[in-house]
Amino acid sequence: MFPINNLRGIEVQESELKEKHVVVFLLVKPSDENSQSIIEHFNYYHHRAGKYCSIYPVGYSRSMFGFYPDVQKIRGVDHEEWEYSDRCFIDFCDELKERLAGWQYSGEPELIILQNRLTDSEESFLDFTNCNYIDINYGLEHGYIDSFQRFMERLLVACQSEVESHEALGRANVMRLKPRNVLISAIETAPKLPKPIKKILGDRLFYKSSRGTAARGL
User: Fold this and answer.
1) Cα–Cα distance measured from residue 169 to residue 186, given in angstroms and rounded to the nearest whole number
2) Cβ distance 28 to 84 under 8 Å?
């Protein structure tokens, strides 16, 4: 769980991480209904994710450095004081719209799942070419997600399994991870699903995939 307030900062962070892993953007505002039950798990998610998953909560930073006048304080990882800004959240969403063709923020909590890219070229250290995203509240309302906390636990387990399966082949740094497989695994292992997984992934109000636009280097 890394509080970085824009995509460039995230790309710098990812350039310093050497292992291939899953990347998750978590879109949840403190004003969202039941958001505190998510925010209070930030510390746990950070440590649970380990090397297998980088989680970036959109709109949050260790410090906004006075750039945004609407900041509010929250407790972050290891009792750090973080700041959140709606204006920063909106700016970040505008950046994402430029990278993700057809993506539009729903107004409620979402997860965007992609992977990092290990590269010395001028390409981005974030791989947007096969990005998946879900509407959390819609999934809860329709029984696709039993609870956000249980879903996140399964998602983080799936991230670990996906990365370790590549490591076992000895080619973890050259083979592409499959964020879709991670998401499917997290959904399929729910106790009771109201529909077959194929129909759930066909519900475009819940799940979408997007081929992101080419990203420029740092």
Assistant:
1) 23
2) no
Q: Residue 76 pLDDT > 70, yes or no?
A: yes
96, 102 Cβ separation under 8 angstroms:
no
Band (217; pLDDT cuts 50, 70, 90):
very low
Report the phi/psi class of residue 59: left, alpha or beta, with left for phi > 0 and alpha for psi in -120 to 50: left
The length of the chain in residues reads 218
What HEC string does the chain produce? Answer: CCCCCCHHHHHHHHHCCCCCCEEEEEECCCCCCCCHHHHCCHHHHHHHHCCCEEEEECCEECCCCCCCCCCEEEECHHHCEEEECHHHHHHHHHHHHHHECCCCCCCCCEEEEEEECCCCCCCCCEEEEEEEEEEHHHHHHCCCCCCHHHHHHHHHHHHHHHHHHHHHCCCCCCCCCCHHHHHHHHHHCCCCCCCCHHHHHCCCCCEEEECECCCCCC
The span from the CA of 29 to the CA of 17, in Å, is 27
What's the CA gap between 108 and 79, in Å, rounded? 26
Instruction: Say how far residue 58 (Cα) sits from the centre of its chain.
Output: 9
> From CA 110, how far away is CA 218, in angstroms rounded?
26
pLDDT band at 201 (very low <50, low <70, confident <90, very high): very high
